[in-house]
Each structure stands twice: as C-alpha cells, then as structure tokens.
Design a protein that fits this description.
alpha/beta, about 230 residues, about 20% strand, 8 strands, 7 helices, 8-stranded mixed beta sheet
Length: about 230
C-alpha cells in the first residue's frame, strides 16, 4: 500500500462524520485540472507514509475518529488495498472509497466482502468527451459504466460527482446524467486552478446549474460562488 499523504482530521470528506483521509500514490488518468498532480506517478514516493503509521495514529484516537476515507490518486490500483481496509474495519471504523471507477471488479469485491460503507465516484465527462477530459486514450468506457451500475445497486451510501472543469460546458451536465442514467446522489462541484484559486463561471452558467439542481432533486452543486456585477 503506497500512501503519499494523510490528513488526520476532516469534517467534509465523509458525510456527517469526523474522518481521516489517506491519499494513495498513482493514478491511471491524466485529468488536466487535477490538483493532486504529485499523486499521479505511481513511482513517486518522496512523502511515503507506512500503513503502520496510520494505524498507530488511529488507534490512539478511538472514539474521536469515525471513519477513514481512502482517496488518491486512484486507490483501486493498490494491490493490497483490501488488506489495508480490513485493518481499518477491524478497528471499527467506517470506510469511504473515492474512485474514478476504472476498476469495477475491485469495487465489486470490496463491496461483496463488506469492506466499504460509502463510495464516491467521479464522473469526468459525457461518454463522448471522456478520453479528452481524462487525457487517456483507449479508455475502457464500458468499465466506467459498469462501476456506475455496481455502485447504484450496492445498497451502500454513495455519491457521483463531476468537476466542472474549463473543458466542460454546463450543457454537458445533463448529458452526463443521461449517459450514466443517474437518478440519485449526483453532485456538480467547482473546479480549482493549479494555484488552487476558484475558477468562476459566468452568472448564466450558475443560473443553469441552479435551475437543474432545483428541477432534478437528485443533483446538487458544491463550491460555486456568486459573481459580482
């Protein structure tokens, strides 16, 4: 388990819970808007953290931390991910997985072994733009679609989310909803530039997002701020 970062306390990464966040090293996508660029290269390990360090810290905070979020990078690329999560579950912690959905078999196995309590999957774009947005050629779109179906029918808490990066138009959002047949728990979130400043959309775009959010009760928006006249 190649761990590149560890946020000890978070109030926003697991809905309604106090959580710690583990960031795994390595990702199989190359999204241009990624603000965790240092986590993309699977061989990069300058800030490597041993799993034992995470377990030791958590064991000293029993009753204070409710959950652990396993994020990345892309966690499903880790060969011993299930072993790491098994240890977390043995500590009676809730576990949330953040994933890009490229490995549906891994997601299915983790669910079948009751190792997850919540899943958040990024829907990067409409199917027609997926390779462009992810910077990845010959991407198995069928695997992405399979992961969506696995998650929708898993019986666990889940969330699908799209980052409205500059390469996406607001009109792409309803296309994503239709392409993946999303009927619940969908979030559109704002994009941050490489200097971590908010990327603002014009008022017309924000109005469209607000209207879609109101009309389709299964969707919501996150991280957008009104633009002054």
């Amino acid at each position: 388990m190649n761990i590149a970062g560890f946020v000890k306390t978070s109030f926003v990464d697991y809905p309604g819970k106090i959580a710690s966040v583990v960031f795994t090293q390595g990702c199989n996508l190359r999204c241009g808007y990624c603000h965790n660029v240092s986590l993309i290269d699977s061989n990069h390990s300058s800030n490597g953290i041993l799993p034992e360090e995470v377990f030791e810290w958590l064991s000293k905070r029993k009753g204070m931390i409710d959950a652990v979020v396993v994020s990345g990078g892309e966690p499903t690329l880790q060969k011993n991910l299930h072993v790491f999560i098994e240890e977390l579950k043995a500590m009676n912690l809730l576990v949330k997985l953040d994933t890009n959905g490229t490995n549906p078999d891994i997601i299915r196995t983790l669910i079948e072994y009751e190792l997850l309590d919540f899943i958040a999957m990024d829907l990067k774009a409409p199917l027609s733009k997926y390779e462009i947005i992810t910077g990845t050629s010959q991407l198995e779109l069928a695997a992405i679609q399979e992961s969506v179906e696995v998650i929708k029918n898993c019986g666990l808490g889940y969330e699908f989310r799209t980052t409205l990066c500059p390469e996406l138009e607001t009109e792409d959002i309803p296309c994503i909803i239709l392409d993946f047949e999303i009927a619940a728990n969908y979030v559109v979130q704002n994009c941050r530039s490489t200097n971590l400043k908010k990327v603002f959309r014009n008022k017309q775009d924000l109005h469209r997002l607000n209207q879609w959010s109101k009309e389709k009760r299964f969707s919501s928006i996150r991280g957008f701020e009104a633009i002054k006249q």
